[in-house]
Each structure stands twice: as structure tokens, then as C-alpha cells.
Amino acid sequence: MKDALIVSALSLVPRNHGARGVGWLARSRVSRGLTRIFVRAYGVDLAEAEGGIGDYPTLEALFTRKLRAGLRPVDADPDALVSPVDGRCAFAGTSEGGRIEVAPGQHLTLSSLLDRPVEGERDVIVLYLSPRDYHRVHVPREGRATRWHYVPGTLWPVFPAAVRRVPELFARNERAVVVIETSAGPLDVVLVGAFGVGRITLSVCDLVTNAGGSTASGTLDAPLARGDELGVFHLGSTVVLVAGAGTLSPNVGPGEVVRVGRRIAGIGGA
User: Fold this and answer.
1) Rounded to two decimals, what is the model's pTM?
2) How would residue 80 be classed by pLDDT, with cut points 50, 70 and 90?
3) Which among 136, 256, 269, 263 is positioned nearest to 191, based on CA atoms?
4) In terms of Cα–Cα distance, which of 84, 50, 27 is closest to 235?
5) Which of 58, 138, 189, 254 has the fewest C-beta atoms lying within 10 Å of its C-beta?
6) Are 33 and 50 in contact (CB under 8 A)?
7) What is the helix (H) or strand (E) element at residue 185, kind and residue range?
8) Every domain of the chain and the residues it spans
9) Which residues are catalytic?
């Protein structure tokens, strides 16, 4: 009920401007007093972090914290796709009619999500990051980044109650897409913004989201190793992985915890 009330309330406010305000506060020194409250409220495990609570001068610095070196070993199996984030799986499977069901009765159209025509079906994995999670995004499979695409939009929250209530939520929110050409074919990595996400930044280009920009794209020629950092959520969100049908054989399902570097799917039936 509490989450439903939050969603209803947010339908009445300018979400993008609100998120910019939250982002500004999170980057200000004033927010240092909120870091301990945030850790307690969400059960953030700072034992995994590179620093202690005193090392984070702002709420954003805490939120974008790095993990201790070696804490997330990357599965080197050549037939593996690894998780790009810490979080939970929300969907793993193949689209039907170009859509996936992200909540009972709520669907996501892949062409709308990717902002381009999509012919045929796709294998899709949706990964949700809660506020307590580590919020850096890593490369799920080695390859070459060939393109980035930015799609402006609104900023609904992406927690499960919101996904159940807002049609096509992920395709309505602001998002950034990185296309990686892998040995198994192209892989779209979609970073979906959410209310409270002051910014999304990418490691492969100088894109900074939620700055009032319009749709934009660019070409890339950037070699990426599995586990490399790909981007950062500066508060909140969700990652969607999209590959050709028959490419991925997921070994995680809805509700399962995922960790950076751990196998979440086999490639080509593996």
C-alpha cells in the first residue's frame, strides 16, 4: 500500500525536475548527514565497500561506492554471460510478439524500450537494483561497444509496485543503451533511469543523463573485457539485457539474487 501511494503521489509531480533536485541534494555536502541514515534504513553492507562510512562526503559518493578489489570474481567460462550488476532478476526468457511480461498484466515492448524497430523475438533478462545495492554497471560479456543511444523520458520509480501499476514503465523512463558486438551476436545493455536517479553516466562516452537533452546517438569502437565498468547509476534503477532469440539460456529466474561477475546465462544453449 505504501509503494502504491508513492506511485500515485509521483503521478502529480514533475518527476524529472524532482529527480534533478534529489540529485543536487545527493551531490551536496549537506547530504553527508544522510549517509548513516541511508545505510541503516536500507541495510547497506559497507563491509563490501572500498571505504568506510567516513570516506563518503556525500550521499552520491556513498551510492556510487566501489567494491573492495577482488570481491566479485568474474566467471571466465567462455560460454557464460555474467551479471552486470548486483540486484535481483525480474525477468529471464524470450519475448512473445516482441513483448515480455514484466509484471502480471503489464508488458514491455522491446522496440519501444530500444527506440528502434525490432523484428522477430529476443532473449531478455531484466535486473532490478534496490537502493541498498552496489550501483556500478559492468560488461556482461566481452566484445566491442559499437553504438550508444540516449532516450529522454520521464522518471517513474522502478520498484515492483510501480512496475505493476505503470504501463510500459521501462520504455517511458529515460534510458541509455550500449550495443556490444560479441562472439554470440549483438547484445543491448539498457540502463533505465528512475525517480531519484540524478544521473546515469557511461564509461564509453561522455553522456550524462537527466540534463534536459534530446534523443542522441553515437558510434563507438571500444574493446570491452568481461567485467569492465560500463556505467554508473548515481541513484536507483534497472538494467535490461537484450540478445537475439536462441542466444541466451538463463540460469536465473524472477526473484533470484544476482551478483556482478556471476553467471546468469549460457550462450547458445550452453
Assistant:
1) 0.91
2) very high
3) 136
4) 27
5) 254
6) no
7) strand 185-192
8) 2-63, 80-267
9) 86, 138, 237
